[in-house]
C-alpha cells in the first residue's frame, strides 16, 4: 500500500548515541581495581567506544565476528560492549567464574577472534588462550583499551540491519554441553524497551542504577542498555560484591535502583545486621536468577522500605520473563493474599507469552506443569545448531515447573531437574526452601532430591547456618510443621560451612546433588 | 550466521490478547451517551472485538482495506479499533469536529469502505455518505456493533507481518489539503513501548488511565494501546469533556493518570475554582498538542500536587516527540531553572531523533531554527503520495521552530506552518483566506493565529480593502456563514493599509503574527 512509516532499524549503537545526544553530562561511574571510582559521562563513553571500534576495525574485525570479553562490570567493559556491537561485531560475554578449560571450550565453540580481559583475570585468560589457538590476541580492559582509544579516531557506527547479531551468551542451564544464545540488535533493543517500563525495572533519567548482576549474565539483565536508553546514571560495581562494598556504593553514588541474585542481597542484609544503618536512597531492587525467599523480601520491604521486584527469567529469554509488581489485581486482595502475589515470580510484559503444560490432561489450572515461553526476545535456535530450540509454534521449553494462578501471576515451583518426585508426586524444592529460609539461624539453604528406595526420591535439606549460630534438627524442621503436607517435610538435614555457588552466583544445586544424592540411603 | 532469536512480529492484536491473558479482570469503562458508565473487562473486550472482526470479514473486509470510525472515546469505539486492526484492516479515525464536506473529502481520499459512527453523529455521517458513494455501509457504534457481535463467532487475529498498515489519521497540520499518515503495526507497537516508560507517560497495572485526548487525535496519543499493554484500567470519557464531567470521572473511576490538550485542563481548573475540591487520586497529567502555559503547570503542581508532563508531538510522529520529566539535569539546577526545563517541551525518548537547523549558518546553539524529526514511528510517506515526506536522510520537517538547550531540552518558540491551533484542533488559515477573498471589498487578506488564553490560538483575519472601499465587520464575516464549522470563524478583524510582503512577494505572515499576535488578548 502506498504510504508508510520511516525505516528506522532497532540497533543498539543508537542507545549510546541517544545518551550522548540527550544526556551528555550524565555520569557513568565504575569501581576500579584499586577500589577508587572512575568517572565518565555518556558523551565521553560514546566517544571512547567509537575510537575503540576503530581499533577493532583496524585489527580486521568484521560484522558478525565474535569478540569475547572476560570481565566484571566496569567502565572499560561497558565501553568495549558498545565498541564491539556498534560495528556489527558480536560481543561474546564470557563467564569469569568458569575455569580455563571450560572457557576455552566455549571460546572455540563460539569462534572468538579477540579476547578483552580484566587485568585481574589475565592469568586465566592466558591459560585459556593456550587451549584456544584461534584467539588472535588479548587486550587488557583498562590499560590496553586506553592505549587503543588514544591511538584511533572515532569509527562510524551502524549501517547494518536490526537482525544483525549483537551478543553471544552461553548457558549451561539445561542438560548437555553449554549452548550459546545469539542475541540480535533487535531482540536486545526490544528487551530494553520492555524492562524500562514502570512495572518492570522502572528506570528513568532521575535514577542512579547499580547492576550488580554481571554483564556476562544475560547482559546484566539488560541494564547496561536500559540505563543509557533513558539517561539514568550508571554505577558499575567492579569485582567487589560483598555486603560492605555494595552498601558503600549505594550511599556513595546515590543508587536508587539495583538488581542482583538473592545471595547478593543476603550478603548485604547480613552486613547491615552487623553494622546497622539504612539503605537510602535505594528505592527499588530487582531480585531474580533464583527464587527470592519471602523472608528476604519482607526484610527489605518492612525494615528498609525497599520495593522488591521479584523477577524470573533465563538467558534464552534475554533474560526477562516475568516481574512481580503491584497491580489492580494485587491491590484488590487482602494484604496477605496480595503479598503472596508479589512474592510470586509475577507476570510477563507485553512481548513474552507463557504457557504451562501439564503431563496430566485432567489436571486443574492449579496443577504445576512444564513452562513454555515465546516472545520477541526468545531464542529461536542456539548458536551453531541446525535445529530450532523451539517447537513448530515457537514455544521454548524453559525447564521450569510452574503454576499460573487465576490473577495471571506465575509461581515457579521448581526446576524440572530440581523437582523432588516422591512416590510419583512432585514436591516443590523451592517451596520448601522458602520455608527453611524463615529460620533465624539459617544463612543459606537448599532442598535437593535424595535417592530413596521406598519413595524413589525424598527431600533433603542442606543448610549453611549464620556465623556463630547453632541449632538442632528439630528446630530447623519446626517451620514446616503445619505449613506443608507431612510427606513434604525433608527426611534429613545436611549442614555445610559454605554453599557451593554456580557460575552466576546462584547456589549450585547440581553440585549438592552430586555430593549428597546418597545421603538418605547411607544414613 | 547460524543461531537466531525467534521471529515474533510486533502486531497490535497482541496487545489486547496480552491484556486478555494476563489482566483478564481489569476494567475498561466508558461513559455512555446517557451519562452512565458502561463496564467491561479486557477479557470481555477482546472476545467482543474478535466477534466484530468476524462480522467485518463476513462483510468482505480484507487486509489493507480502510474502515473509518467517527466517534468519541467510548467502549464500542475501543472494541472497533482492535476488531479492525486485528484482521489487518486499517482503522481510519475521522475527526468529528469536521463538517460533512471535509469528512467526505477525506473519506474519498482514504478510500474508506465502511463507516462506524457514534449514534449522536449519525446526521453528519449520513450527510457525508451522500457525498461519498463509495462507502458501502454505516454501522452504529453501540446498537449496531452489539448486534454484529451477538451474531458472530470470534475471528482469528494476526497472521500478517509487522509492516502491515494498521491506522490512518489525517492531519491538516501543514499547508495544502489534509494528508493521511498511515501507521503500521510496528510503528504503533514501538510507540506504545516508548510512551509506557517512566519518563514519558509512566503507566503500570496499578494505574487508572483517562485518555481525554480523542482517539482520532493520533490514536489518543497512544493510550488506547498503552493501557492494555500494561494492564492498566482504561477510562473512556465519551462526549462530555467539560470540567465538571472530567472532575466526576477522576473521582468516580479512581483516575491516576490522564492526558489532554491545555484547553481541557483549563476547563477543569475553572470548574474547580468555582466549586472547590481536589483532584485525588490523580497523580500525573500529560499536557500537549499545544504549548502548556507555565501558569497552568504551576497551578496543577503547586495547588493540586499533580505531576505535569508537558509533551510535544504531532500526527506524523505517532504522535510523541518529547516529554519534560524530572532528571539528573533538572535536579542539579536551581528550583527556578529546573522548573523552566520542566516547562519546556522536554526531551525525546530513545527512538526519536531531533535536530534544529538554522537558516543562518553563523547562528549560535541558542538561536531558534527549523525543527526536524526522525524515528521508528515517524511518517515516511503520506498516504497515497508518491514522494517521500522526508529528506534523503529520513528527516521530516515538523514546521515548528525551536531551540534545543544545552541540557538537551526542546523549547518550541514558534511555528513556521500556516495554521491555527484552537483547543488542540487545526483550523486551516488557507481555507479561511480563500473564503474571505470572495468578498468584493477585499484586496488582500490573511488569516493568522492570535494567542488566546482559553483556546491557545484563535483565527484573526487581516484584510487590506480595495481602494476607496469600506465595509463592516459583519459584512466581512458573512461569507463564512454556513461554509465552515462555526468554531472556525475568525474572532477578530484587523484592517491594514498595505500587507507586508516577503522576499518572494507573498504576504509575510510571520510579520503579521509578530505584529498582531496579542490582538485578541488586548481587546
Ligand atoms: N507542547 C506543545 N507546545 C507547542 N506546540 C505544540 C505542542 N504540542 C503540539 N504542538 C503543535 O502541534 C503540532 C502537531 O499537531 P498535531 O499533528 O495535530 O498533533 C506540532 O507540530 C506543534 O506545532
From TrEMBL, chains A, B:
- By what name is this protein known? Fatty-acyl-CoA synthase
Q: Name one Pfam family in it.
A: AMP-binding
Q: Which InterPro entries match?
A: AMP-bd_C, AMP-bd_C_sf, AMP-binding_CS, AMP-dep_synth/lig_dom, ANL_N_sf, ATP-dep_AMP-bd_enzyme
> Which GO-annotated molecular functions does the record name?
ligase activity, forming carbon-sulfur bonds
Going by the entry's taxonomy, the superkingdom of the source organism is recorded as Bacteria
Report domain AMP-binding enzyme C-terminal positions.
Answer: 432-506
What are the residue boundaries of the AMP-dependent synthetase/ligase domain, all occurrences included? 19-383
| Gene source species | Rhizorhabdus histidinilytica
